[in-house]
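In this section we walk through a basic example: taking a raw amino acid sequence and producing a predicted 3D structure, encoded as discrete structure tokens. The instruction is simple. Fold the sequence below.
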Amino acid sequence: MGRARIATNSLQTTSDLLMIFPLLSINMFNLSSDLLTTFGRFWWIFRRFCSRLRLRLGKSVYVLLSLLVTVGIWGISPYPTEAISWPDIIFRGIQVIQLSNLSSRQEVALGKQIDRQLTTKEVKIYRDRAAIKYVDEIGQRLAKESDRANIPYTFQIVDDDNINAFATMGGFVYVNKGLMMAADNEAQLASVIGHEIGHIVARHSIKQMRQMAIAAGVASATGLDRNVAVQIGVELALRRPHSREAEYEADRLGLQMLGKAGYAQSAMIEFMKKLLNKSSPPTFLSTHPATSDRIAAMRQSINPTTADRGEGLNGGEYKQKISQFLGS
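The resulting token sequence is shown next.
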């Protein structure tokens, strides 16, 4: 008799826990209030049904049905196209990322946070729709020919007359108004955008972030705090030059994209020569590896007989176009 009472109490506890568990699973998925209300009503009806049913069939059936409903609710997600892994569910509140095995999806998510920090606190974005559309069309044309065409790319114009361009992980590229005005033609502008896409394709920012975090002692065995990662990402985008090897690789990848997209590859060399010959070369060139060495390396990569073949060399057309949305 005592054993039967213990078994009954244990069974009751189990069934009670199983009744609570689906509600916990719902909260973990952050379902909307409407969906929670619907499930609440359903669960109330289900409990009444089970209360009556267990009088006839016993508590074992009640437990079994509770378990089935738990599994059913557990499998429901308001975002059916986005799979949520067990580690994500368990550690959702822990803002730690592993840079050593960062997936493309995670990289894009981190890039969005870095972009938000950059565009709200660090740089002023130029909002002219025609200008944005123009740069985006060039960028998407190049990105489609890259080795990472599977991630989304965002191209933005920085409202700054200095000659500069930079990128951050996850497909975010920024071009200064000053660089657009300094370019002689569309192919030259495309050459810079292609170079920045090259950094994203080779995941240079992620490698730099990992090195910087280890050197600063902020990376632990479990990974890097996401907020720290965002701050490092901003610092890398604005103030830290890439390594010599990274610049050469971005040049090579940019040249490939330029040719595949139908632009004249010679434009990359011509624009770099133009900037190098200025009385005061842009800061981003002075912090990069020797420009003359990069030009020599590019010349070796381009077939001289086809270097000038391609689109984007009409300077008059380009200047007329950008004057419409950038001014003189």
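Looking at the output, two observations stand out. Residues 3-39, 59-94 have pLDDT under 50 and may be disordered. Residues 98 and 223 are 5 Å apart (CA to CA). In the next section we compare this with other chains.
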